[in-house]
Amino acid sequence: MRQNKIKAALLCAVLLLASAVTGAAQQKSEMNRAAGKFNQTLFYIDRLYLEDVDLNALVEKAIVAAVGELDPHSSYISAEDVKAMNEPLQGEFEGIGIEFAIIRDTLTVQATVAGGPSERVGLLAGDKILRVDTSFIAGIGLSNEDVYGYLRGKKGTKVELGVLRKGVAELLDFTVVRDKIPINSLDAAYKVEDDVLYLKLSRFAAKSRDEIVEAIRSFDGVIRGVILDLRSNSGGYLPTAIDIANEFLEAGDLIVYTEGRALPRMQESARGNGLYRQGPLVVMIDENSASASEIVAGAIQDQDRGVIVGRRSFGKGLVQQAIPLEDGSELRLTIARYHTPSGRVIQSHYEAGHADQYYKDFYERYLRGESFSRDSIQFPDSLKFKTLRLGRTVYGGGGIMPDVFVPQDTASYSAYYAALLRQGLVIEYMNGLCDRNRSAWTSRYRTFEKFDRSFKITDEMVDGLVALASERGIELKEDELERSREDLCLYMKALAASSIVSRDCFYRVMNSRSPEFQAALEALREASLSRNALL
């Protein structure tokens, strides 16, 4: 009897293997026929078409069209765009190490990167770079891309700079040796009231976890709560998301798993060596939080580890594999779906080949009132899931729904203010204003506390911005300006704080009136007091 069962099992295995081999052979044959047909078409176009044709351009367009028939997140990236897209995620580039602004058509140093090559040779905030090697670059219509071309280059190469410094008559000469320059993804890390650590992460880059660990380790005092701000964080590297989630979860806690047609289920769990595995935790998200942000928020929520505050996230839960092509271009192909620990699918609904409708559906969330009322978001019972410790109801089928919903505040919105923002005029004006007053303001406001108490956006400053806008063709609408004045002045002050004090002070100012941030603080307080706190 046992031998018969073994024989039956072996026969079954042989039949399955034969079926798989046959299926693979058929699939390969179909692929070969399709590739052969395409090659034939290119051959006849090249040999017989009436006019000369750029075959490379033709192939690029054909690939783009083919990928466009897939899901909304598969993409083809040309060789020249690959490096530019990867650089912010890799966490560094090679250059001279400055933050800059183009003020009155002149390249102006806003800050030097700590320990970078420009700081080492003595460049200062406020310096104006008029010459790079033998090229004078002031007054030529300089763009950011032009600046990158002039100043970035291979590590170890030299660049000669001619610098105009306030109070110095002659042009100063500097020789800067280019080096690797870190790109920070942790935009702010500072102590809030009651020993709370606030972390603003803009993307999931290669070194993001290291930045967060450093912020936790350097915290002055005992951390009694953490706010991880992932608002408008569109994602990045999956391994980084797993590493960051690991900092907050206990050993064995499932973080995420993936499944695909050609891939078996793969899952990632916490290792139990994170620095903040207990204690109140809040994760802030909004409609622009996506991908890796949703993986972290979903894991924290499903494991009942913390409170999610904000608005429903974007809903990007597809795994892309970066596949390099022989000419340096890249195919980013969707190969699997992400699932949160409870089994939820993060990805919003889509139809293959209809990316335009997919993004239209996202924008229609706003029209349906989703940003303003939780009740406008309806989930069918089939999308209900339970968290793994407390059994709370959570929902799948597109994005992460927060535990604490905070409606978008548009009371101060006006078309006039929106026009100022779209054209970058507030940033341009404040860059110039800070540049003209840098010496006096940096001397007067040596700490953020002093800046926050004493620095005021005056009517004269607002009038200067209005005058610049008028020069650029934006007509003043006084009623709209008054409606938006409070928000406008807050933004102007935040930009000044970033330029005069330090970069993270931008968020310290903006958070002082952020409804989401205040809700996050309240959620931390409740978690600290509640016997059933999500720890």
What does this structure look like?
The protein has 16 helices and 21 strands. Helix content is 41%, strand content 20%. Strands 3, 4, 5, 6, 7 and 8 form a 6-stranded antiparallel sheet that branches. A 6-stranded mixed sheet has the order 10-11-12-15-16-21, sandwiched between helices. It has 535 residues and is of the alpha+beta class. A hairpin with a 7-residue loop joins strand 7 and strand 8. The longest helix has 47 residues, at 2-48. It has helices at residues 2-48, 55-67, 79-90, 117-121, 144-151, 208-217, 238-246, 292-302, 355-367, 415-422, 425-444, 448-454, 459-471, 478-500, 505-511, 515-529; strands at residues 75-77, 92-95, 98-103, 106-112, 128-132, 135-136, 158-164, 172-177, 179-182, 186-192, 196-201, 225-229, 254-259, 266-269, 281-285, 307-310, 318-324, 330-339, 384-386, 393-395, 404-405.
Please outline what is shown here:
This protein is α+β, with helices and mostly antiparallel strands.
Task: Give the SSE map.
Layout lengths: L1 H47 L6 H13 L7 E3 L1 H12 L1 E4 L2 E6 L2 E7 L4 H5 L6 E5 L2 E2 L7 H8 L6 E7 L7 E6 L1 E4 L3 E7 L3 E6 L6 H10 L7 E5 L8 H9 L7 E6 L6 E4 L11 E5 L6 H11 L4 E4 L7 E7 L5 E10 L15 H13 L16 E3 L6 E3 L8 E2 L9 H8 L2 H20 L3 H7 L4 H13 L6 H23 L4 H7 L3 H15 L6
Parallel strand pairs: 11-12, 12-15, 15-16, 16-21
Antiparallel strand pairs: 1-18, 2-9, 3-4, 4-5, 5-6, 5-7, 7-8, 10-11, 13-14, 13-18, 17-18, 19-20
Helix pairs in contact: 7-8, 11-13, 11-14, 14-15
Number of helices: 16
Average pLDDT taken over every residue = 88
Distance between the termini: 56 Å
Helix content: 40-55%
